[in-house]
Amino acid sequence: MVLTVKDFQGNIAPINNPTTASLVDTFGQVSQITVTFLRSLNPNVANMMQPRTLLINEDTQQQYRLQSVSATPSGGDYSIQAVFLGILHDWNDHYVDGTIKDTQSLDACMQLLTNGTSVTYTIHDSFPNFEFSTEFGKGKAYDLFLNTLVSDFGFEFSIDNQHIDIYKTIGQQDAFVWLDTLSFNTLNEQSDYTAIATHIKGTGKMDDNSKPLATAEYSSPHVKDYGVIDADFVSDERFTNNDALLAYLKTKLQDYPLIQRTITLNNDNTKSPFKLNKDAVAVGDHGYLRARNGVDVNTRITEITRDLTGHTATQITLGNQIKTFDRITADLQLARQQAAQQITDIKNEQSTIINNNVSTLDGGESVVRYADYAETLPTGQD
Fold it and tell me: Low-confidence residues of the chain, pLDDT below 70?
């Protein structure tokens, strides 16, 4: 394993004898490499820990951009830790000024995001067009891709430096069979039950009389297990058809616990009756775990942590994903955007009503007169 750094001035140097070097591949995210090294063994590399410095994994030719660096005193020396993210994250250097609206293909959206950048893509499967309720664009390119397009079109993707391969689903079926003790040494399980819901309602686009053109309601079969647990109400202007809205509501309902299992692979292949190649599996692969009680668990790889120095065993996380901080932030950002659009719509509607029929009273209050009643709105209230 050879890791090389290259700074913005073009200087190149290998990292000699890194103390640690771990590569983390996570489903739906760019990869991350964290490396620590002693300054005395790498004085040139230490001086190259500057903004825009690249790290190249010479074994795979994958490139990573420096995100953060820290130094800690260590026995008269300094231990330096640097964190690098896959170079696709540079896509966020590009702000998308343009917009497209109405019904669009995935290809049209990707063209908008990649225009004028070094990012390329291949769409391997067919995806139906998507109708945007508002304009798409006006944001950082990678954020728009990750936080909007992935959920709107429902695809998965893999990354090769600045090239994206887009599929309906990634990974291989029946890619592994791992046995407790023989294939892996430890198994840790983490469960999250906080977001389970079994019932959901929603409405689609409103007509001129503020009545929904589409309504839908869905109850999960797990109602019998957990009872009626309401999810957040969905109001989505994209839908004018009940069946389409119903299908969407089903995808929004999380009626199962989030469970992750983390295992540490046994690197001794001779102990397992199944050939174990830790480098052959990839994020997105499906396979089986067999615990000591003989029960097979059908699961999927969501994260792989590899020690590039070879000192520690590979760790693999399996199961549906418990939200990371980045994913939570993205969801909050999307919710804020949707709330902002709803506030804008309400303001526009109020402005239209007020402009049509408003009289001003002493004290600075406005009264909106309807045929049968009046509603008081303090001036300046949203």
Answer: 181-182, 267-279, 291-296, 320-382
Token pair 């994250």 in the structure block, residue: 89
117 in the same domain as 240: no
Contacts of 37 (CB under 8 A, 6+ apart): 15, 16, 17, 18, 19, 45, 46, 79, 80
Give residue 255's pLDDT.
Answer: 87
Is 186 a domain residue? Answer: yes
List all residues 6 or more positions away from 137 whose beta carbon is below 8 Å from its beta carbon: 96, 97, 98, 99, 100, 112, 144
Domain that holds residue 362: 325-378
Cα–Cα distances (Å) from 255 to 156, 226, 252, in that order, read 21, 9, 9
pLDDT of 355: 53
Residue 298 and residue 214 share a domain:
no
Same domain (yes/no): 351, 224:
no
DSSP 257: -
DSSP 8-state secondary structure symbol assigned to residue 367: E
Which residue type sits at 281?
Answer: V
Which candidate, 268, 198, 182, places its Cα nearest to that of 231?
198
Q: Select from 37, 63, 89 the last residue of a domain.
A: 89
- The amino acid that residue 75 corresponds to is G
Do both 187 and 286 map to the same domain?
A: yes
User: 20 near 35, Cβ under 8 Å?
Assistant: yes
Whether 172 maps to a domain, the answer reads no
Element (H, E) at 326: helix 325-356
**Res 295: pLDDT:** 56
How far apart, in whole angstroms, are the C-alpha atoms of residue 202 and residue 152? 17
**Nearest CA-CA partner of 269 in 173, 188, 179:** 179
Do 74 and 138 share a domain, yes or no?
no
Are 280 and 182 contained in the same domain? yes
> Which tokens sit at 95?
């702000």
Q: Hey, which residues does 358 pair with through a beta bridge?
A: 368
Report how far residue 139's alpha carbon sits from residue 94's, in angstroms, rounded to the nearest whole number: 9
The answer to whether residue 368 sits within a structural domain is yes
Structure tokens at 84: 């690098």
Task: Give pLDDT, residue 8.
Answer: 92
Please tell me the distance from the alpha carbon of residue 188 to that of residue 182, in angstroms, as a whole number: 16
Q: Among 68, 89, 110, where does a domain finish?
A: 89
Q: Which helix (H) or strand (E) holds 239?
A: none
